[in-house]
Structure prediction request, 155 residues.
Amino acid sequence: MSELKTGDLAPNFNMPTDGGASVDLSALKGKNVVLYFYPKDDTPGCTTEAIDFSTLIAEFDAANTVIIGVSKDTVAKHDKFKAKHELKVMLGSDENGTVLEAYGVWVLKKLYGREYMGIERATFLINADGQIANIWRKVKVKGHAQAVLDAVHAL
Prediction:
């Protein structure tokens, strides 16, 4: 599959979320969607990113925008993570990696000379028509949630 780019139709997905619910992208048509991928619940960078998005949730809501954080963690882990940090964002569980693959964020990573497959921290802004409006790859957490909100306001 070729790499997604702005203007492409966002790949549809349906996955379980925290709280025993599920989310289907096609059911969110008419809303903007921030789909952010992160490696693992309750790690420092991932926790900061989730808290930053949660802090801005009212502003995203006002801009008709849904935020969905996605990792391979189970729904049970998501529930604990959300409760522990009082997170306000929806957390999708992609245990089998189909959404990660569709968005091209399941990648070869290197750490201390070791190579392994893992989740690239990336964010996709999907507009109300289901098109990818913006992509951030290899995200640095500091200031990222605000940058995404600014991009939503620019739509």
About this structure: The domain at 30-153 is CATH 3.40.30.10 (Glutaredoxin). The longest strand covers residues 65-71. Residues 44-55 form the longest helix (12 residues).
